[in-house]
Specification:
The complex is a heterodimer.
Chain A lengths: L4 E2 L2 E2 L4 E4 L1 E4 L2 E8 L15 H23 L4 H14 L2 H12 L4 H19 L1 H22 L13 E5 L4 H5 L6 E6 L7 H9 L3 E3 L12 E5 L4 E4 L3 H19 L14 E6 L2 H9 L4 E6 L1 H5 L7 H12 L6 E5 L27 H6 L1 H17 L3 E6 L5 H13 L4 E6 L2 H5 L1 H6 L3 E4 L1 H9 L9 H4 L4 H17 L3 E3 L7 H10 L3 E4 L4 H9 L3 H13 L3 H11 L2 H4 L3
Parallel strand pairs in A: 5-6, 6-7, 7-8, 11-12, 11-18, 12-13, 13-14, 14-15, 15-16, 16-17, 17-18
Antiparallel strand pairs in A: 1-2, 3-10, 4-8, 5-9, 9-10
Helix pairs in contact in A: 1-2, 1-3, 1-4, 1-5, 2-5, 3-4, 4-5, 9-11, 11-13, 17-19, 20-21, 20-22, 22-23
Chain B lengths: L1 E6 L8 H14 L3 E4 L6 E2 L3 H7 L6 E6 L4 H13 L7
Antiparallel strand pairs in B: 1-4, 2-3, 2-4
The chains are: A alpha/beta, B alpha+beta.
Amino acid sequence: MGGVVQGGRVVEASSVVQGIGVSPGSAYAPVVQVGAAVRPPANEEVLEPEEAARVIREALEAVAVEIERRIGLASDNAAEILGATAMLARDPGLVDAAIAHASAGKGPASAIDAATQEYIDQFVALGGYFAERATDLRDVGDRAIAFVLGVPSPGIPELDAECILVALDLAPAETATLDSSKVIGIVTEHGGRTSHTAILAAQMGIPAAVNVAGATGIAEGTPILVDGETGQVHINPSGEMVDRLKQRAARRTAALAGSSGPGMTKDGKRVALLANIGGVEDAVAAGKADLEGVGLFRTEFVFLSASTAPTVEEQAEIYRQVFAPFEGKRVVVRTLDAGADKPLAFADLGAEENPALGRRGLRLSAERPDLLDAQLEALSIAATDSGADVRVMAPMVALVEEAAWFARRVRENGLKSVGVMIEVPGAALRSAHVLEEVDFGSLGTNDLAQYTMAADRMQGELSDLLDPWQPALLDVVAAACQGAAITGKPMGVCGEAGGDPLLALVLSGLGVTSLSMAPSKVPMVRLALSLHTFSDCQRLAHLARSARTAYDAHQAVLGAAANELTAVL
Amino acid sequence: MTTRTVEIGSSVGLHARPAALFVKAVNEAGVPVTICKPGGKPGPANSMLAIMALGAKHGDTVELGCDAEGADGVLDALVALLERDLDAEA
């Protein structure tokens, strides 16, 4: 393999870069770089009108041709969409508008950008179906701009062989439409433990590392090995290294083969193993997996793409489909968790300076109780029809009064089990009183870490602060579990921490009675539990909380855990 | 300028597939045709974007215009197309 130079940066011929492992497993394949959309430079050169028109026509035609080339490779449904997108690139209205902007004194890329944006604005104003088409138009515009500027096209290129995708970060839509038969690993330069890429990669079972410095500088086609557990990315690894990691993967497969069924410690204490899901497809997949139900059903997808509030009937139909695979099993539903960072077209309370600390979760429901009531009614209808054990919990609860308000509304709708997310430190510290109002609690460790350490979870650079091994976070979790023990109410975990086999032991030792995670992480957690007694877990929890730093906590638990487990981590 | 007024027959309005079929028909006619909402600024009827930006829903009225020779025949054919529920024929 040749030089590893791109964008003026040089990556050592054979080297290791440390990132954060977010989706277990390892993968070895050549790199495919995902281009980022490029904006036209502010000082773009203005061309003579005829020349500008030629450049603009050429760029849009090239985009149309490239999209049409993909039609042959796509399924019928996708082919039709691509055909319509190619037509957008050739659209006389777009070409004319771009040329008009160029004649009025803009550079060709800026002119394409302005023309695209005008139509996008009109589409967005029309809402609904049109607003969705705005994304296709943005894609056409971005590709044409990249063509004019002579940089790679944005987005995931057509893949014809197994590869490891490398990007600055992946948009949720990109991650969701990945072809997992081709993409066997994901590496991003940005992002943290709880970024969209991390969550979706784990959901799809694709090994992934995020926050890998210099990742976008690795040349296209370079063979790399990503270890989704340790977060290490080996660039041009030696054959020996590849063999060693393959052997470890084989050991792991062998160890996991012997473990199945409900989660329990070696001495038989049950810790339910549940799935985090975000939609109907996830529900169908999780329904087939060896797990005990759903510990977190995120309902945002029902609302985020809609321009008007979905009706009770529409929602009930979706919830029915989600509950269907879980006959006789529990499904814990989290009510709408939106806010200024995930605004809803029909419930926008305006921009906020600190969305994470603003009117989100249950606080938004308090401003718009009509939305909550419609959701609860729909859940109640779908629950009545289904054989699933449906439980409903509220996000972002801080006060006893909030828990009581929510519980009353849930019970008035005929739903029998109500709980609260424990993700605000205030609620964790006062969990005994908060839980008195409801039937269960569920620790959202991602947000609990963000609020305990005052570190924005979307800020990749702050990953260390958000490390779930931070002893301070474990103290807050311990306090929440103590409160739960006083009331006798169960306390689960539905943050990503529950999917880390070593942390799962610590959390169980602290008194957590269920762990919810990406389904791909369940087998390893089940194995970890089966190799330790409850008192082992308590001892590991004590070791972690006695440590002075997150690193020490992790090392202490790693050192004291069963060898059968650490040999396959 | 020969003009026609027509009510959109497609249940989903004039976008997506119905719009694509209409644009195809305009291109096949081979003469410049304009489209607008009553009182609006006429735009090229072979522009999918211009058509979609109209936001014409089922039952909305649009105006077609054409200056070319044989405009009557061309417009009549296009009117007939728009009156149908093109989406239902998918």
